[in-house]
Design goal:
308 residues, mainly beta, Arc Repressor Mutant, subunit A, Jelly Rolls, 12-stranded antiparallel beta sheet, 3-stranded antiparallel beta sheet, 4 helices, transcription regulation, transcription
């Protein structure tokens, strides 16, 4: 579960505000803060019909406040609901002087444009692993575009973030959210890894992930994904580059600020996630996308833009 979710005045945040503007939905969130519950259990606790609760659950799920999975029950399969967030932080975009806009994009895990990895390593899509495990050659396999999870012990993957800026516009902030963890043989929650981030060729900083999590099954993992001795989920982290520097979940990583990475018109921004061989903790990297781990998202990018 993500500890903090950033909210602003963009359309994605609007879904959250709409989901919260209902007493029954707030009651559901309070109940799920205690434990995961089925739709039937929630309906009985609220004295609502299952059909009514399903409508509320759909709204909460669309906003990203909860995640739902299907699990065996007493009378067949049941829909099990869990919280996906514990708290919020955020703010309003200043509008004095220049007009500010927000742009966004979603990058699938397999859509990297460059890589260099060492075993243990591999990729998987919703239906199966891609090629042979621990063979870096399959990171070039055409099927990798369908990958929604990847992992490696050392190296990097690099993505191209599209540059939607118009002439005269400038970036004022970038937020990049992703689910990730270390990569241990099997899994090991005490397996630190120094994961570094670069954007536009500039080093943003290093975050030390505490481990590779396999103590319980990931909420979204497909049925064929192994239950034991395999990474199950990661931590949802928000990497931000602002006018004051680079941060991860609000904790400063470096002084690299948004002015240092302003892209030229028509030029994309390379975004590299790496575990360097000279790091203090070479503990690998696992990246989760939609349908894997605990958060049903890809690498999500939000740009704050100022226009003349």
């Amino acid at each position: 579960m993500v500890t903090i979710r950033y909210l602003s005045t963009d359309d994605k945040s609007l879904l959250v505000y709409e989901a919260l503007s209902s007493r029954p939905r707030l009651d559901i969130l309070d109940m799920l803060a205690t434990r995961a519950m089925s739709v039937k259990e929630i309906a009985e606790a609220l004295s609502f019909s299952s059909a009514t609760v399903t409508i509320h659950i759909r709204k909460l799920e669309e906003s990203g406040l909860i995640v739902c999975t299907h699990a065996p029950g007493k009378h067949g399969r049941q829909k099990l609901c869990r919280l996906a967030v514990e708290s919020f932080q955020g703010g309003f975009r200043a509008r004095t002087g220049n007009r500010r806009d927000a742009l966004s994009c979603s990058i699938r895990i397999g859509h990297y444009t460059d890589y260099s990895v060492k075993p243990t390593c591999g990729l998987a899509m919703q239906s199966s692993f891609i090629g042979q495990l621990d063979d870096p050659r399959y990171f070039s396999d055409p099927q990798r575009f369908d990958a929604d999870v990847l992992w490696f012990a050392e190296g990097y993957v690099e993505y191209r973030i599209p540059n939607y800026l118009l002439p005269g516009q400038r970036l004022t902030r970038i937020d990049i959210s992703m689910e990730l963890c270390s990569e241990a043989p099997g899994s090991n929650e005490n397996w630190p890894s120094d994961i570094s981030f670069e954007l536009g060729g500039r080093q943003l900083g290093i975050w030390t992930c505490p481990g590779d999590f396999g103590d319980r099954r990931g909420l979204l993992n497909p049925d064929w994904w192994p239950d034991t001795n395999k990474t199950q989920y990661g931590l949802l982290k928000i990497l931000s580059v602002t006018e004051d520097g680079s941060f991860i979940d609000g904790i400063k990583l470096s002084d690299t600020a948004i002015r240092d990475i302003q892209p030229l018109f028509g030029h994309d921004m390379p975004f590299r996630i790496a575990v360097r061989p000279d790091a203090d903790n070479v503990g690998g990297l696992t990246l989760f996308g939609q349908g894997f781990g605990n958060y049903n998202q890809n690498i999500e990018v939000i740009f704050q833009v100022a226009s003349p």
